């Protein structure tokens, strides 16, 4: 039996739960994690990081956006988390808890970490995050077995759908910038799309971010006739598929709509 004699930070409690019980983190939902900047990692920064990750899950805006900061100077820890706009509150909270565990496992001594899941994203850094458009690095996810026999016809369907979704997401407010939809092409193939920005960035930044990641995906993958995929940045993401992957309407019992990270 493990006996705890002092109060532990919430992220460490989550690690214990993760290790000594059945994990809830799904490898099918986890997409990627990145770590940066190991220099100047001090005990003060670690203390601030523990505090930040303990408080962050309690800062939900009501629509799945979280942010919290602790400390000063180089030991400051800034953090954000974003749940996909169609997942319910319990799934959002579960994804964030799992992502905190994943970040601490994958980036134990780094001052910056980003975790992407199909349902949410988590980022912390000693640099400013809130309200800042982060254009790189891009993260692409493509299923190898999804290809179209008619690339041009497929792209004629995808582009108008994504253009429409970009406009809808960018028109959102400071709580939610998210849109989903579908469009059926002349070959009767239905394309499903999802776009989302962190709600702390302004409308113009959201539009620029989504246009950029869609363009980056197109030059890297559409020439190969790919008919589904995901592109991720800390400030925006998009996904399209030939099958439904998002909730058409709020799941039962959901108090409010909530997001990547990214994807179902």
UniProtKB/TrEMBL annotation:
Entries under Pfam families matching the protein: Stress-antifung
Keyword Signal appears in the UniProt entry: yes
Boundaries of every Gnk2-homologous domain copy: 27-129, 135-245
Signal found in the keyword field: yes
Alphabetized UniProt keyword annotations: Repeat, Signal
Xref: Gene3D superfamilies: Gnk2 domain, C-X8-C-X2-C motif (3.30.430.20)
Signal peptide: 1-26
CDD domains xref list: Gnk2-like (cd23509)
InterPro entries named in the record: GNK2, GNK2_sf
Protein name from the UniProt record: Gnk2-like domain-containing protein
């Amino acid at each position: 039996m493990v006996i705890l004699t002092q109060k532990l930070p919430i992220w460490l409690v989550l690690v214990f739960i993760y290790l000594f019980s059945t994990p809830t983190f799904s490898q099918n939902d986890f997409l990627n994690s990145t770590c940066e900047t190991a220099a100047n990692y001090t005990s003060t920064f670690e203390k601030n990081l523990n505090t930040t990750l303990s408080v962050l899950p309690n800062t939900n805006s009501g629509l799945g956006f979280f942010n919290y900061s602790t400390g000063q100077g180089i030991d400051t820890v800034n953090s954000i988390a974003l749940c996909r706009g169609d997942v319910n509150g319990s799934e959002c909270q579960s994804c964030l808890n799992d992502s905190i565990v994943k970040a601490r496992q994958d980036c134990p001594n780094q001052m910056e970490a980003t975790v992407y899941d199909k349902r949410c994203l988590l980022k912390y850094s000693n640099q400013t995050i809130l309200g800042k458009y982060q254009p790189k690095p891009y993260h692409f996810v493509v299923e190898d077995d999804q290809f179209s026999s008619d690339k041009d016809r497929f792209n004629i369907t995808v582009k108008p759908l994504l253009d429409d979704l970009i406009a809808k997401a960018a028109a959102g407010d400071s709580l939610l910038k998210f849109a989903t939809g579908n469009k059926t092409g002349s070959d009767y193939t239905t394309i499903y799309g999802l776009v989302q920005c962190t709600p702390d960035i302004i409308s113009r930044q959201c539009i620029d971010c989504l246009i950029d990641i869609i363009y980056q995906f197109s030059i890297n993958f559409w020439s190969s006739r790919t008919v589904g995929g995901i592109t991720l940045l800390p400030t925006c993401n998009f996904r399209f598929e030939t099958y439904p992957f998002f909730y058409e309407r709020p799941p039962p019992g959901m108090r409010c709509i909530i997001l990547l990270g990214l994807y179902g």
